[in-house]
Amino acid sequence: MRILLVRPPRIEQAITLSDFMFSEPLGLEMIYGALKEEHDIEIFDMMIEGINLSKKIESFKPETVGITSLCIDVIKVIELCTEAKKADRKIITVVGGTQAYLNPEAFYHEAVDHVFQYTHLENLQNFYNGLSVGKIQKTDGILSRIFDYETTGVKGRNQYLASDRSSTAKYREEYSYFGYRSAAIMEFGTGCKKRCDFCLRWRIEGVKEKLIDSELTKKDLMSIKESTIMFIDNDFFASREKIEAFIQLIKELRIKKNYIMYGSVEGIMAYKEYLEELAGLGLKAILVGYETFNDAEMTQYLKNATASDNRLAAKVLKDSGIDVWASFMAHPDWSKKDFKKLRSYIKTLKPQISSISPLTPFPGLPMYACYKDRLLYKAEDYEKWSFGQVMIKPSQISLRRYYYELLKTNLYVNICINNNTEMIKNFGGKNVFGIIKGSIKAAKKYFVLAYRGN
Ligand code: B12
Q1: Is residue 198 within 8 Å of 301, Cβ to Cβ?
Q2: How far does the centroid of ligand 1 lie from the alpha carbon of residue 70, in Å?
Q3: pLDDT confidence of 217, banded at 50, 70, 90?
C-alpha cells in the first residue's frame, strides 16, 4: 500500500518557538520504521517543504495519507484531510499524534476516516495490513468514522517504537535545537511521576517512569549522525538508576556528541554529584522549568521545589559548566510589580536563555476546571492553545498591559541579562542571528496581541 505520512506546516497565527526549537517528526519516523517492509511509504514534512499537499499527492499517488498532530494543528489537519480527499476521493485519511491522544474528538470530521488515539506496533501493523486488503475492523486505540468513532473500550498509550531516521534524510539538516544544528531527538525513559499541575506530559506518557529497552536505545544512539541529541524525556534526572544507565551506555558506546536534556530542579539537586561527569560526556544544556519566584505559586503548581531551590540548582549547574535554558510561567494574577520581581529573580539565576509563557490550563488538566470561568478562549479554539497566548483573563492589569509585560520581560531577560557573546561563542553568529530573527517574529506577534488586547 502507498502511504504518505505528513507533518502539517506551522500555522501562521500561533505564537510558536519554531525558530529556536525545530525537531524531526519522531512519531512519523516510528510509523515509517514499523511499516516500511510491507508498504511503500514516504514522509512529507510540510514544516520544510515548499509545495502543497495536492502537488505531493499528484506525484506520489498515495492510497492513504496519515497526518501527525499537535494541539494547534487541529484545523490545519482537517484542512489537509479535506485537500487529500479533494485530490483523490479514494484516499483514506488517518490522524495520529499528541493531540489525537489527548483529544481525539477534535478530529471527528467527515474528511477524517481514522483517528489513532494511541499507537503500538500491533494495532499499527494490523490496521495498515487490513487496510491494504480492504478489511477494516474495530481495533484497540483506533477510532474509525465507519464505526461512528466508537472505541473497543481498551485503554492504552503510545508505544515508543524503533524509528527509522533515514526516512527524513533530506530534511535532517534543518532540524535544530536552539543554536545546536543539526540535532536529533530521542527518548531514554518515558513517564513522569511528578504530576505538576500545569504539565501535560505525565498525562501523555503516564506517571510510571520506565527506561526504554536498552537494545532499542543502543541501536538508535548508534544510528544518529547528527552531532547533537536532544533527549525529550520529561525529566532526565528522574532517578539515580536512569542517570547511571545513561553514563554507562555513553561510555560503553564511546559516543562523543552534544547532549541536551530536560531536568527538574528536584532531580538536579538530588543527583548533583553526576553533573560534572555528564558535562564531561557532552551534556551542554538543561531545559529547566524554574516557573516562578513565588513559593505559593510553586505549591499551587505542585512543583516539589521552592524559589530558593531554583537558586541552588542554578549555582550547581553554573559550577558544572552546563548551560540553563530556563522556562517561567506568568501567573494570571500578576501585577506590574510581579513581572518586575520576576525580572530581578531571573537576574539572580542567570540562565543562558529564558522563556516566559503565560500559564496555560490545557483542557483536560485539573487546572482547566479552576480557571474555566476566566478563560479568554474556548477549548475548541485550537489555534490559541499554543502556550504562547494569554488564555486566562489577568486579574490585576489589563490584557494589553499583561502582553506588554510578557514581551518586555522576554526581551529584557534575553537581551540585557543573558550573555549573548557567550551564545555567539557556542552557536556561531549565523545561528544566533536565526534565534534573534525568531525572537523578533514572536515579539511582533506579542505586539499585535498587546495592541488588540483590552
Ligand atoms: C519534539 C517536540 C516538538 C517538536 C516536533 C513535534 C512534532 N511532532 O512535530 C517541535 C519542536 C517542532 C515542537 C513544536 C511545538 N510543540 Co512540541 N513537543 C515535542 C516533545 C518534546 C516531544 C514530542 C515527541 O516527539 N514525542 C515522541 C513521539 C514518538 O510521540 P508522538 O509524536 O506522539 O508519536 C507517537 C504516536 O502519537 C504515533 N503517531 C504520531 N503521529 C502519527 C500519525 C499517524 C498517521 C499515526 C498512525 C500515528 C502517529 O506514533 C508515535 C508512536 O507511538 C513534546 C513533549 C513530550 N515529551 O511529549 C512537546 C509537545 C508535544 N509540544 C507541545 C507544544 C505545545 C508545541 C508547540 C505548540 C509549542 C510552541 N508554542 O512553539 C509547537 C507547535 C509546532 C507547530 N505545529 O507549529 C505540547 C503539545 C500539546 C498538545 N496538546 O498537542 C507538548 C506535549 C509539550 C507540552 N507543552 O506539554 N514540539
Answers
A1: yes
A2: 6
A3: very high
pTM: predicted TM-score of the whole model, two decimal places: 0.95
Give residue-wise pLDDT tens across range 171-216.
999 999 888 989 999 999 999 998 888 888 888 999 999 999 999 9
- Written as nine digits, the cell of 386 is 499554543
The dihedral sign for the CA sequence 207, 231, 279, 178: negative
The residue to mutate among 4, 23, 69, 70, having the most atoms of ligand 1 within 8 angstroms of its beta carbon, is 70
Angle at 196 between CA 195 and CA 199, to 5 degrees: 95
Q: How far is it, in rounded angstroms, from Cα 47 to Cα 51?
A: 11
Cα of 341 from ligand 1 centre, angstroms: 32
Mean pLDDT over each residue of the chain, to the nearest integer: 92
- Which residues are near ligand 1 (CB < 6 Å)? 7, 10, 15-18, 21-23, 25-28, 30-31, 66-68, 70-73, 94, 96-99, 101-102, 116, 119, 158-159, 161, 185, 200-201, 204, 232, 234, 386-388
Residue 166's closest CA among 27, 33, 4? 33
> Do the beta carbons of residue 146 and residue 115 sit within 8 Å?
no
For 3, the 3-state DSSP assignment is strand
**Of 239-253, 285-299, 323-337, 436-450, where does mean pLDDT reach its minimum?**
436-450
Cα 220 to averaged position of ligand 1 atoms, centre (Å): 19
CB 356 within 8 Å of CB 410 = yes
**The ligand 1 atom nearest the CA atom of 27:** 34
Identify which of 237, 304, 230, 308 has the alpha carbon closest to the alpha carbon of residue 268.
237
Residue 415's pLDDT band, with cuts at 50, 70 and 90, is confident
Name the strand (E) or helix (H) holding 449: helix 429-452
Radius of gyration of the chain (CA): 22
Look-up of cell digits 470530521: 109
